[in-house]
């Protein structure tokens, strides 16, 4: 038997910590012990039933996990190996990692970099790994430190806070957008040069505005993304990875055809292994462990349901790591 955060939906929805039989685990060629997990925005949607994340019931929540391989028939993995898991539909169509044990596909796993503990890897989680993919998108499209201001929206959230820390350490001039004015000093300590109120971007705006941003990391979508595009400088790049404000995007082709702006979509769920490994290798090199520690709020598995509700209410900053055992 093992403990897990189980989501059930019949006539009503229920999220609870339960003891489950190992025999109930889904198919997979690697059996793992999960030592640490985390809460991402998608986990919050699933655990609070505020979004159509879960597509099979019942479902064990948790898209991220880190721990140790117990058994493996996969050629790349053996008992005792340390792993990281992000995405691949886990917590949506395949039982997730807010559980003491899980059975996974070995092709989904990434080797835990020597620079990180399992706890640190989950402090990064899908949110931080997505932030690194966004930074790589800016770099791959030629946005260098010194090019100008880089806007990070949703800056106190999981993606935003790691993006601020990464970009700041890499030498970029970072402008953090947030609705939490009280967190301005914290964001500046992470690496932001300036902090603006998210209200400046959150309402409908003109489709073509004064140029400001050399690059953007956007986890918000909707009007915020539309305004960011309208304000991006000639040849600038916008990395879009989220929809905290909404999935809609009311804009025009003007930024693209008159300023040569690039809108780079960033997906973390189905990203191929080589891209994942590149992102984790760069995180190991470029994310300051001391800054990472300032992002962390640690909770036990039993606290994950309440914390998911707090996350969806906008009452969480940085990254929540979930201690599975102990």
Shape: globular
Rounded to an integer, what's the Rg over CA atoms? 19 Å
Q: What is the third-level CATH name, the topology of the largest domain?
A: Quinone Oxidoreductase, Chain A, domain 1
Unreliable spans are: none
Structural class: alpha/beta
Assembly classification = single chain
The overall strand count is 16
Mean pLDDT: 95
CATH H-level name of the largest domain... which superfamily?
Answer: Medium-chain alcohol dehydrogenases, catalytic domain
In short:
The protein has about 325 residues and is an alpha/beta fold. The protein is built from ten helices and 16 strands.
Could you walk me through the main structural features you see in this protein, from its secondary elements to its overall organization?
The protein has 326 residues and is of the alpha/beta class. It has helices spanning 41-48, 118-140, 158-169, 184-190, 199-202, 222-231, 254-259, 273-286, 289-295, 304-312, and strands spanning 2-9, 13-20, 30-39, 59-60, 64-72, 82-86, 101-104, 109-111, 149-152, 173-178, 194-197, 213-218, 232-240, 262-265, 296-300, 319-323. Strand 13, helix 7 and strand 14 (262-265) form a beta-alpha-beta unit. The chain is globular. The chain starts with a strand and ends with a strand. The model has no long low-confidence stretch (mean pLDDT 95).
